Amino acid sequence: MDEILVGAELYCVAFVRDYVQFRFHCESEDAQLNAYALPTVMVNGTKYRFGDIGYRDALCGLIDQIVEAVFTREGKSISIMFKSSNELRIKLNNVASKPLVEYAQFNCGDVVQVWN
């Protein structure tokens, strides 16, 4: 996922019942990241979590931004850093709530990656 997303543009944020879907325009084909563990987002130095006022606006504010780096910390988190210095983070071990079957899923062509 890391090498596929770097340089990609986030073009869609979709709120689907109990998860958030992110779509990226990559060099060869589009990619999709489903966050079943609701992500946090850092925009202009302010951190937003699900339930915070402005959370959805902050996520949508990432649209049109270009991915600068992707960090996956095994069993801990996925962090997507944008050239604007904004960050999208998905925790993969949410101890505050019940465990999930899957925390995130990435698809791009034949590449499928699942975190559970």
Short overview:
This protein is mainly beta. The protein has two helices and ten strands. A hairpin with a 4-residue loop joins strand 7 (77-82) and strand 8.
Question: Can you characterise this structure?
Answer:
This protein has 116 residues and is mostly beta strands. The protein has two helices and ten strands, in the order αβββββαβββββ. The strands form two sheets. A five-stranded antiparallel sheet has the order 1-2-3-9-10, with no helix packed on it. It has a five-stranded antiparallel sheet with strand order 5-4-8-7-6. The protein is globular, with a radius of gyration of 13 Å. The mean pLDDT is 91.
Order of helices and strands: HEEEEEHEEEEE
Q: Radius of gyration over alpha carbons?
A: 13 Å
Regarding quaternary structure, what we see is single chain
Tally of DSSP β-strands: 10
Which consecutive residue ranges, at least 5 long each, have pLDDT under 50? none
- Into which percent range does the helicity of residues fall? under 10%
| Structural domain count | 1
Give the neighbour order of strands across the main sheet. 1-2-3-9-10
Average the pLDDT over all residues and give the rounded result.
91
Structural class category? mainly beta
